[in-house]
Amino acid sequence: MTNILEHRIILDFMDIIILKHLKDNHPMSGYDVVKYLHQKFHILPSAGTVYSLLYALERRNFIEGTENQNKRVYKLTQEGEKFLEKINGTKDNINTTFSSIFY
To answer: What is the fold, at CATH topology level, of the domain defined by 2-98?
Structure first.
């Protein structure tokens, strides 16, 4: 059961996971994102899921995609940084919400 819940949380928060990873690392391609998620969380999201999410993040101006050696690579924008700061400020609220659900 734990794996099901962890998998669901990772899928639901994949946008934040990607933004945080881009903040802490160099620009990445969609393939690099899939590889990271597989290595870190042991899930293998479809390329369609990841690319749809990357395009949505780009439309929201949280990431910027550029062409690099025949592939599109993404980096975090200032808007993405601001969004992550807001999310970081809500960690206590998220913990409280999860606690109220399970206790």
So the answer is: Arc Repressor Mutant, subunit A (1.10.10)
The CA distance from 13 to 48, in Å, is 16
pLDDT (tens digit per residue) in 41-79: 999 999 999 999 999 999 999 999 999 888 999 999 999
Task: Report which of 71, 70, 88, 89 is spatially closest to residue 30, judged by C-alpha positions.
Answer: 71
User: Which residue has tokens 């934040």?
Assistant: 16
Q: What is the model's pTM? A: 0.86
Q: Are 75 and 64 in contact (CB under 8 A)?
A: yes
Structure tokens that stand for 98 in this block: 């999860």
The domain limits of the chain are: 2-98
Closest C-alpha to 58, from 7, 1, 18, 31: 18
CB-count burial class (<10 Å; 0-12, 13-18, 19+) for 2: exposed
